[in-house]
Amino acid sequence: MPPYVIPDKCDGCQGEQEPLCELVCPGNLMVIQEHTGKAVCRDVGDCWDCMTCTKSCPRQAIQTRIQYQLAFVPGKLVPVVGPHSVTWTLIDCHGHVERFIMRTLAGDEEEEEM
Ligand code: SF4
Ligand code: SF4
Q1: Is the CB of 33 under 6 A from ligand 1?
Q2: How buried is residue 21: exposed, middle or buried, by Cβ count under 10 Å (0-12/13-18/19+)?
Q3: Which domain does 44 fall in, by range?
Q4: Which of 52, 54, 72, 105 has its CA 20 to 30 A from that of 90?
């Protein structure tokens, strides 16, 4: 499920030397295209779908496209990262929307301390 960068949303992290998606990718796969200034996964075959880049983008410019074996092409996953959780919005090929809230470790630790 390789990342898909929405060109209109990506601002290239405003010229940062190392944009966030590039910084966090464990496979060093996210790069800024010289001619567009937008991010792209340079080799989707090497992407192991960790979705770290998807979650890291401050402009929510990266979506995880769901592979055809699991859903038809328009299926996608869009994360919104909060301080204690990640909300994943799943939009299937018929436009049906489901949301899944995953609590993060930071949230668990905070609750344990209370
Ligand atoms: S983190 Fe988001 S805005 Fe920044 S370069 Fe990557 S896709 Fe573009
Ligand atoms: S999903 Fe993971 S491995 Fe694939 S490009 Fe994004 S950060 Fe890199």
Answers
A1: no
A2: buried
A3: 3-113
A4: 105
Compute the half-sphere exposure of residue 24: CA atoms within 13 Å on the CB side of its CA.
13
- Ligand nearest to the CA of residue 11, numbered in listed order: 1
Structural domains counted in the chain? 1
What is the best residue among 8, 9, 10 to mutate for testing ligand 1's pocket, by most ligand atoms within 8 Å of CB? 10
**Which pLDDT tens digit goes with each residue over 7-45?**
999 999 998 989 999 999 999 999 999 999 999 999 988
48 catalytically annotated:
yes
The enclosing domain of 79 has a CATH number of 3.30.70.20
- For atom 3 of ligand 1, the residue with the nearest CA is 10
Q: What is the pLDDT of residues 55-104, one digit of tens each?
A: 999 999 999 877 655 655 667 888 988 889 999 998 887 888 999 999 98
Q: Which residues contact 38 (CB under 8 A, 6 or more apart)?
A: 5, 7, 10, 12, 32
Centre of ligand 1 from the C-alpha of residue 70, in Å = 26
